[in-house]
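Record 1 of the preview.
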Amino acid sequence: MTKQKIGILILLLLSTVSLSQPQQEEKTLPLTLESCVLEAIKNNLGVAVEVLNPELSDIAVSSAKEKFMPNLSMDYNRSSTNQASYSWIEATGNILTDRNSYSAQLTQLIPSGGSFSVSLSQYEYDSNQKFQTINPRYSSTLTFNFTQPLLKNFGPKISRKEIIVAQNNREISEKEFTKSLQDTIYDVEEAYFNLYYSIELLKVRKQSLKLAQDLLEKNKKSVEIGTLAPIEILNAEASVATREADILEAEAQVKNNQDILKTIINLSGGKEGTELIEIIPKDKPQYEKKEISLEEAITIAMNNRPDLQASRIDLKNKELNVSYARNQLLPELNLQASYWSPGVSGTRLIFPPGNPFGDPIATIPGGASDALKDAFGFKYKNWSFGITLTFPLNTLLSRAAYAQAKVNLEQSRLRLENQEQQIFLEIKNAVRSLQTNYKRVQAYRVARELSEKKLEAEEEKLKVGLTTNYFVLQFQTDLTTAQSMELKAIIDYNLSSCRLNRALGISMKEKNISISDVLYR
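->
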């Protein structure tokens, strides 16, 4: 062998080795329907978005409750004045005055709509003016104030309106999140069963192709020995080509359904290696008759539908808005009550008898603490009580708000009635679809069994020459169609059962999933 031939042989071997290098193989991932549902609830991006809504509603409730948190305010002021004296009686030179004042007040709104406050104010006064008996002087005042609306803004329902609405909105967001979860569960079930159907349909079509290929081989042998016309080979080849095209379509459908299920459970999204994962459904569609009456289904739906519950809660908000708007039309009648205890202390100045214009001959010291003791000891008791009535001369805006609130309430009532009608229709269709699909499975099962018997009989007739290949191919096609229709009917029956659970609002209950497990995981 020449060197040139040896080199060519080596190149051929290397190219063969490179072409035979193992490529990345697809990995199969067997999954049950339950595991797919749990993965979707855990990883689905749509669920991840919706789960934030109840959290935002919790924040809104906390923000509304801050209205009844105590409010503490403090104030401090210091001043010093220096001005000319206009009379030697006041002072021989400039009049110097120093004043320090500080106060603190704690205010609390109460559920009845009123407010209560307690405050402590204190000041220190020091001046060089004459004719003062206490200098420096200290004053403290402890004050209690109470204000209560008796008409407008009266009552816990009015004062707590923002809190009640926020709490109702929190419930609405939870019901809407429950609805989103139920829709996600159904999306998983639909994608799972559609994937199972496409895989099984691919098997049926491969079996059909195998039958056509076997018949083609048999026809070729018969033509070779002269017992069959060559045209029969063309008929068989045409049938094989058609069924190969059907397989290509079925394989594409499997891939499409794979991608849909991967997206729902968030197994795709460009993650490395996910394109090579092939999900294999482990659970087969069940064919068990589900008995439920229309009246029972409607009762269950009325008690469990989260969207219906959300609409009822929203109706409560609208009723509260009407009550609040009606209350704002009333005149203001406010009760005010105050109680305060002052205290005064300081350095007492003692002047010569009969000479108040002279300098002090003695002092009796006193401090700020003495004034505080008098204030907190309620040495000087003072109180006041009053009622204020205010009639608005123009209630145009408040009446417009009341009219708008009533219209919104009527809209919500009509919307709720329409929603109930749509639910009735949805339940009727779901129950009817369940019953119809159950009967379809039975009918297509009989059709498939008869197609199998007809094909067997036709194949026996072909063996003895009583029929032609055309009729055998036709019966093979009929069997494939019957198998496909039976499989589709079983899938439709399972999906109609899933749709009924969603329409009844019990999808999560059927899967033993609670809303708290998802929100607080």
